[in-house]
Amino acid sequence: MHHIFSDCNMNHMTIKKILKMGNLALLQKASPINNFNTKALKNIIVDLLDSMHAHKGIGLSAPQIGISKRIIAFGVKDNPRYPHIEEIEEGILINPTYGSIDSKMDYALERCLSLPGLRGRVKRYTNIKIEGYDLHGNIISMKSDNFFARIIQHEIDHLDGILFPMRIENLQDFGYDEEITTRFTD
Ligand code: NI
Fold first, then answer.
1. Ligand 1 centroid to 39 CA: how many Å?
2. Which pLDDT score, from 0 to 100, does residue 2 have?
């Protein structure tokens, strides 16, 4: 007979429920990772990536799966929710930060798995420099622009308890997918 807590050697894989706006956990400042290369950290990363794939996201933050840690995931490949955007190699960043390279900003409609069915027009930096760590604690440094830069800024906002509607300058630019997409071309 199998014991419910049997220590079988199954691969860890969990698709987590995505918390939705209104949940207080999404409004907290997440805490940094101090110990790298641990089993616990690996498990969070696997859960985050599995959950992002299952929900067809192009970015996901640990707080959205109920883990108040500074970890984000991203990646775009053949995504039916985003058929017309450039591919972005899948990755994760731990304790990520960004800074603007210049003062250029632009607007685009954003979505979020924590607000299904809604979109809003948000202003973000166009060109940013990103820093963070990988699972092993190696520093990762890169530059990004346009859509990728937007994803990173959106995901890092989640780590500080900020959801995209909080960044909308005019709430008239917020609404349901099928209504609002007809109003903006970007
Ligand atoms: Ni989001």
1. 26
2. 42
Q: Which domains does the chain have, with CATH numbers?
A: 5-180 (3.90.45.10)
Sheet-wide strand order for 127-133: 59-61, 71-76, 88-100, 127-133, 139-145
Decide: pTM greater than 0.85: yes
110-137 pLDDT, tens per residue?
Answer: 999 999 999 999 999 999 999 999 999 9
> Dihedrals φ, ψ of 175, to 5°?
180, -170
Task: Identify the DSSP state of 12.
Answer: P
Are 64 and 159 in contact by the 8 Å Cβ rule? The answer is no
Q: What are the tens digits of pLDDT across the range 8-18?
A: 445 667 899 99
Q: How far is the CA of 113 from the centre of ligand 1 (A)?
A: 6
Q: Which residues line ion ligand 1, judged by CB < 5 Å?
A: 112
Q: If 0-12 CB within 10 Å is exposed, 13-18 middle and 19+ buried, where does residue 86 land?
A: exposed
Find where tokens 């990728």 sit.
148
107: number of Cβ within 10 Å: 13
Which of 86, 155, 169, 179 is catalytic? The answer is 155
